[in-house]
Amino acid sequence: MRSIADSRKCVSWLGATIIASLLAGCVGAIAEYDGPDAPTYEPYAAAQRPHVALVLGGGGPRGFAHVGVLKVLEAHGIEADLVVGTSVGAMIGSLYADGMPAAGIEQLALDLDLKRFIGISTKGLTGDGRAIETYIDERTGGKLLEGFKRKLAVTAAIRGDNTLTVFNRGHTAAAVRASSAMPGQFAPVRIRGVEYHDGDEAEPVPIRIARDLGAQVVIAVDVSTYVHAIPPRAPADWAARDRARAAKVAAQAAYADVLIHPDLGYYAGMNGEYRLMCIRRGEQAARAALPKIREALARQQVAINQVH
Fold this sequence. Notes:
With 308 residues, the chain is an alpha/beta fold.
């Protein structure tokens, strides 16, 4: 017989899954973007290449931990001039790239009204991808990807073969919407004739992209579950997906100077207690990583001084 604790965990996970769906957009009509501001990619000129990149990975509700990391970096005067985000990391990353203080992002996370992202269709209660697009537009003033205080790159996966694609110019909210479109549950997004879905399907933490864009120091944040935390009773498909995600992150890890990976347990949630827990553990993991971050930044400064 399933214990009360097990039941609560399953309910928590189910609730988080449903809510993540609501935040990303439902299966239905494909959103089309082919105008002059449709998201695209353009390499940075040599003089514009970033120095310090912050890579924020996907993970649905677990992404609240990103807020804790931002709080610690800000408190210690550590700034990135490039933000690379996928899925929930793209959502939070767009706010950070716009210059919003960590305290402001935290307040938004704690006050998030999920009813805003619920829509009604012939299939019943669903998520509304347009709502996520509107939310990002409102919070960032409708800025294009190239118009933020910090450089911003959003990743998505091409539907069909999951090829990783990066957007750093054009309609920010459209790119974030594409980056968050979980396959099988949420509507993909068609950009310039190509269909995209959740960037997490290609690279859960797209670290190498930061290097490709020219970053000399890369700080990455992985909010996925630890493989050792997978419970024996977890459904086989969940466990397989978690192990596949961990393998993808491990393959990218060498491109990061610092990889922050807070332990958030296995089952996710969306209530206030869960949000605060993720933020707190994000802070703890970031504080533990501070010596490595400072060491990487010091090496960068030495290299700059030698050039000059």
